[in-house]
Structures are given as structure tokens and as C-alpha cells.
Amino acid sequence: MLHGRTVAQRPPVSMLATLILWAVELIVNRRWPAFPRPLLFLICALIGIGGWMVLNARSIYDSDFSAFVPLRNFAPPLAGSVDYAISAAWMIRGALLLGTMLFVVDLSQSNRWLLRLWYVIGLVAGSIAFLGLLQKATGARMIFWQVAPPSAVSTFFATYYYHGNAGAFLNLVWPLTAGLAIRAFTKRSHPGMRALWISIFLVTLAGVMANTSRMAQLVAVLLLVAMCVQFGATLLRTFSSTEKGVAFAGAIAILLTLIALAQATHLEQPLNRWQSVSERTDARWLASRVAIG
Description:
By secondary structure, the chain is an all-alpha fold.
């Protein structure tokens, strides 16, 4: 939950710790990691290309004088980075992120751990969406109800300072919660598991709608339509005639709950943003008209 508002140094540290623990696990169990060779080749190629750009950097930016200071690179005719410092910092982050991807791929080779990872992502998604809805309902002026700074941050949602980032994250994870909800019904899981994952799915979806990012809402609607087309008929076939009636009544109850939730979380704010799309004062609308024209 802290990664939405964390400082720049913390994600690399957490990813490095993950990779160290993974390496320890591989050594203790005396095994090689399992992931596709093409993926390993592509990751090594990306790290190699990026590393070369850093090693052959042509200059470094001096923020005090707002100028690029030339560097002596060992292969001037070949490509190299313009700013050594920024490129080196991003290569470290990129290499750690790619290494973390390999860890996740290795972990996902086991169906048991893949499902556990899926559960963790769903629970974290639900907690972040619930926090954002709670902030909207209580009129919070800052993350975790802190005192608003002099330059108030008006676009925060949950632990994210910018609502667009929060919307992008929720659009990545709410389909996973929908998958867990569908799995709970198709696998005839315990009623408690069904209630848990359908609740988390609704909370994450409501979080996207309560968020004021219009693009996130548009993407969520398209994803929801695609999921209904893909899995709607399959899910209905798993119900008997009696269960279909219960499911219909449950859908009505869910709809009423979402309406009440929308009123409590001030859904009029994102609706007002949609109404401003066609206004001539909207900067993005003006920029898009200029680009198209």
C-alpha cells in the first residue's frame, strides 16, 4: 500500500531484498529457477542495451547551471545516454524490476503459489480501493487524513498522490478480483469465499468509478464489457433454475448497494469531470482538437 506514495529509494530497496531472499531460497533448496528461455534472453538483452547506454554516456546534466557537461566516452561514434546520472538510476531500477519479474515467473510455475499470489494481489487491491472510498466518504483532505499541506493535493486517491496512477493500478487488479469471484462460484467454493471475493470485486470496481480519472473509468467500462461477453454465458450455465433466480435477486441487491455507495462516496465529482470534457476551457480537449486538426 505504501508504494503509491513512497520515496524514490524505497521500491529499489524492496525489490533488491526480494531478489536476495529469492537467491537464498534457490541456494537452500539447491535448484535452478524455472522460467522460459526467450524471456530470459529478452531481459538480458534489455539490461545489456541499457547498460551500454549508461557506460557510453556522452554527458551529464548540471542542474545548478542548467547545462549538459560533456563526458569522455570510450566509443563516441556509437549510441550513448545524454544524461549519465538519470540513465544510471533508471537502469538500476529497471534491472531490479526485470529481476522481480523473473521471480514472479518462477513463483508462478507452481499452481499453488500462483493462486496464493493471486489472493494477495486481490486482498491488497481491495484494501486500497476501500481506503480510497473511505476517503471520499469522509471528505479527507489528505492521504490517511493528514493535515493538508499549503499546496493542497486535490487529486489523491487511497495511497496515491495522483488519481491517474491509482486508476491505472485498480484497472490492473480488479479483473483479477473478478476472476477470483468467478472461480469461487464455478468451483463451488465455501459460501464465505464467495461472499469475500464478490465483495472485494465490487469494492475495487466501485473504487475505479469513484476515482476522478476519466481514462481509468473508460478503460474499466471496456474491460467490464469484455469480461461479461467472455464469461457471462459460462457463469450462467453453472447455475440451476432456482439459483438463477437467487442470482438475479442478488444482482438487484448489488445494484442498490452500488447506488448507495456512489452517493456516500460523492460520485458526482467524477460525473462533473465528464461534463467538462466538451467545455472549451478543458485543456486536454483543446490539445486534442489541435492535434487532430
